[in-house]
Amino acid sequence: MSETTLFLVFATFTLLSALMVIRSKNPVYSVLFLILVFCNAAGLLVLLDLDFFAVVFLVVYVGAVAVLFLFVVMMLDITISEVNETFLRYLPIGAFIGCIFLMEVFLMLGSEFTPVNMLPQDFSLSKANTFQMYLQFFISSVPVFLSTLFFNPWSLSQVIKQWWAHSTELQELLQQLNSLKSSEHFVVQEYTLWPETIENITTIEALGQVVYTYYAFFFIVASFILLIAMIGAIQLTLQKETPSKKQEAFEQNARDFTKTVVKITH
Q: Could you give the number of structural domains in the chain?
């Protein structure tokens, strides 16, 4: 199975599990789907060769945070919530946040992040691509204008001049891309990955070398701080044994009346 197929599988299960976290009526099922989200995210990190962060995801999030959520939900005995009643109430704010998120994704997936050597030989800008670039430019300009208008209105004219210069530059760039052929100007470049050539180590080995050599002193100081915090928490939870003041009924009933001292008042 190729890495692309594994990525699609992990990404699909991550999205479906995240959707079930907010759609499940039973909070226990929501926590279980949250654990599944963390496991799939760890799989995605493994595909990116970030094995240390994948292990941290499984140990910290699944082994500690998600299990803690599960215990809290089960101990509090939370009743099954009615999702349909509260869904329409939070729909406007959810739609607003979702639109902002989609706008950010739309801006991040622009063609400016595409490497030059990854472009096809018959590359040419279509009307849809041109419209997409213009739309990305105008959408990214809106927050700048709003922040300038509300927080720095006296520099609005300067911002407009800069925006006009950037728009002119974008228009010239699009005209050049439409007029030039990619086979004549886009050259495939080869790079040497020097870290792999010199020494090929994993992420965990690299972090271990850095932490236990260059940052060994800070690591020891952090360990002592955690030790002091643990000792302080134990000391605060300790309770001194105090003698309880209570009556001994058996000894009081078994005593000899003739040997007692009675105070007589006149």
A: 3
Amino acid letter, 238: L
The two structure tokens encoding residue 23: 């759609």
pLDDT tens digits, 24-71: 878 888 888 989 999 999 999 988 888 888 888 888 888 888 888 888
> Contact, 125 vs 174, CB < 8 A?
yes
The answer to whether the CB of 137 falls within 8 A of the CB of 166 is yes
**Residue 24 domain-assigned?**
yes
Element (H, E) at 37: helix 27-47
In a domain, 48, yes or no: yes
pTM: 0.48
Rg of the chain on CA atoms, in Å: 33
Which secondary-structure segment (H or E) carries 13? Answer: helix 3-23
Q: Which residue has the tokens 């911002």?
A: 159
DSSP state of 58: I
* Alpha-carbon gap, residue 90 to 98, rounded angstroms: 12
Is residue 149 one of the residues assigned to a domain?
yes
Tell me whether residue 155 is in a domain: yes
Q: What gap in Å lies between CA 215 and CA 209, rounded to an integer?
A: 9
Q: Are 183 and 202 contained in the same domain?
A: no
Q: Are residues 123 and 166 in the same domain?
A: yes
What residue numbers bound the domain in which 45 lies? 1-89
